[in-house]
Amino acid sequence: MKHPYYNIIPSLLIFSLFVFGCISKKKHLSAIQNLKTTNEGIVDDWQTKYNEKRGELNISNEIGRKLELNLAERKGENNILISLRNELQLQIEAMEFQMNNMGSSSQTVENNLRKDIRIKENKIDTLQNKLRKVDSIIKNNKKMLQQISDELAIELQSKNLNSVEVTTQLDKVILIVPFDLLFRKKNISRITSSGSTLLQDISNILSQYPQVVIQVIGHTDNSSPGNKKYLDNWNYSSLQSATIVRSMVSDYDINASQLSAIGKGEFEPRISNSTKEGKTMNRRIEFVIFQSTEDLGKEIRKILEEN
Fold first, then answer.
1. Which runs of E-coded beta strand occur in 36-106?
2. Which residues of the chain have pLDDT under 50?
3. Are 6 and 43 in contact (CB under 8 A)?
4. Alpha-carbon span 251 to 254, nearest angstrom
């Protein structure tokens, strides 16, 4: 490519012809040559400068392209970073949403648990209240039996009846009366006068407790009854208890529904029948006093069925 300064040369030639028209041909040619040389030097100088600037421009363009590439790369990296940031932001928002849902769910679960706990606490309170009532019934029953035992013991001590025993167990009172204190030997149809007095004292105490049940149990030793009409000791002991029950009902106004006559014969001895003393101890009448388990059960069931 020629530099625009090459267009100056023809103009200079025309100008030289005009100016130096009167100059000799030789000088004229010499002047033209000098002028041409000078102009060529100027042109070369300008060409050199042009080439330098062109090179600088090329370098600048190259640098510009590299900068554009770097910028593009930076933009690409920035886009990746922006994409990652957006992804992280979405994850954070998702986690926050889950946490909010979990919080709501946890609150619901907590409320349900609190409700269940309140219901169970109410049930526990109800059951504990029922248990207290049942305990009160059992406690009152024990208190009543202990009171009966104490009253019988005081009455026996006042009469110096040391041969009569009173024992208190968990749910009953047992009064043990020797056979000879109630009956004459081998006569169980009539009660002795001392026996009648004892039955009256016993009946006076028990009549104050219509809620109790009284089992009158006859016991014998292992000897034969001695009379064929009694068949055996079982029959003999049953007739003993029946005589006492009949007297308590007819003579001392104990409710018949409270009483039962039972004969055990020789089959529940206190000690061995191998001695005379042992046989004497085994011949006895036992009064077993307790509150009817059926009545206690009704009271307890009534409490348990309460709403």
1. none
2. 2-3, 5-6, 12-13, 15-20, 22
3. yes
4. 8
Q: What is the pLDDT of residues 61-82, one digit of tens each?
A: 677 677 666 666 666 666 776 7
Domains defined along the chain, listed by start: 159-303 (3.30.1330.60)
Q: Which amino acid is located at 176 in the chain?
A: I
Q: Provide the angle, in degrees to the nearest 10, between the axes of the packed helices 193-206 and 233-250.
A: 60
- Looking at residue 188, its amino acid is I
Which ranges of 171-257 does DSSP label H, i.e. alpha helix? Answer: 193-206, 233-250
Q: Are 259 and 248 in contact (CB under 8 A)?
A: yes
Q: Which residue, among 288, 297, 208, has the nearest Cα to 245 in the 3D structure?
A: 288
Backbone angles phi, psi at 22, to 5 degrees: -90, 0
Residue type, 25: K
Give the span between the Cα atoms of 43 and 159, in whole angstroms: 166
Q: How many Cα atoms sit within 13 Å of 144 on the Cβ side?
A: 19
Q: What is the pLDDT of residue 185?
A: 78
Q: How much is the pLDDT for 22?
A: 47
Instruction: Return d(Cα 260, Cα 216) in angstroms, integer.
Output: 6
CA 9, CA 143: separation in Å to the nearest integer? 150
